[in-house]
Task: inverse folding
């Protein structure tokens, strides 16, 4: 079955540590996205990539980094520079040229203690 | 600056009745609109969409209405069922900006269907 997979579902890290969230898709989509969800804030765009080896900052990119070395994979690193990293992170993918009808993964809940 | 607004954080509706969820937007460049449904600790799933050339799109129990002049859209669910209880997100995109499309989401409305 085609889909988008995020792992792990729950992640705990100590303050000051970098952590990388995985996102893999086998939908043959060119575009991939990372969103963050906080209570009462909706989904906010962190980074997006329309094609391999290219990515752009979203609305809240500070303290995050990404890479897009393969079409199927778009990992997100939450660095120690991110002031408030505890959140629910969602990865999505879509056909390039249409940021619409994006398909989402199940999400990763990151808790920094 | 919240470009997509869902002013009702929550809504409770009796089973079998109509649920109406509202969404307002401020960016006149938006011309493609979507509704997503989300259960707790899961990713959102696409529900229904509408482009600005239409004012209504229907899919089974779900209908989305778009009023471009008022920059307002609504999602109607009829009849409402217990499985419809979820958070609903409105999202918007500028369709014409090829290569730079990205979805802007509202803050969500939690719909509770009362049996």
Result:
């Amino acid at each position: 079955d085609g889909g988008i997979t995020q792992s792990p579902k729950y992640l705990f890290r100590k303050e000051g540590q970098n952590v990388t969230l995985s996102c893999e898709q086998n939908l043959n989509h060119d575009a991939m996205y990372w969103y963050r969800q906080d209570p009462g804030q909706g989904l906010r765009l962190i980074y997006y990539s329309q094609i391999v080896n290219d990515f752009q900052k979203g609305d809240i990119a500070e303290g995050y980094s990404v890479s897009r070395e393969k079409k199927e994979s778009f990992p997100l690193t939450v660095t120690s520079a991110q002031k408030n990293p505890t959140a629910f992170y969602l990865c999505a993918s879509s056909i390039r040229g249409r940021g619409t009808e994006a398909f989402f993964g199940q999400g990763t809940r990151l808790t920094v203690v | 600056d919240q470009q997509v607004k869902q002013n009702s954080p929550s809504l409770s509706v009796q089973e079998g009745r109509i649920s109406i969820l509202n969404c307002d937007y401020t960016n006149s460049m938006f011309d493609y609109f979507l509704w997503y449904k989300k259960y707790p600790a899961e990713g959102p799933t696409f529900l229904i969409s509408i482009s600005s050339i239409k004012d209504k799109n229907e899919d089974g129990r779900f209908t989305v209405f778009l009023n471009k002049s008022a920059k307002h859209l609504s999602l109607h669910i009829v009849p409402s069922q217990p499985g419809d209880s979820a958070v609903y997100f409105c999202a918007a995109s500028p369709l014409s900006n090829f290569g730079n499309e990205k979805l802007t989401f509202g803050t969500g409305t939690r719909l509770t269907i009362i049996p």
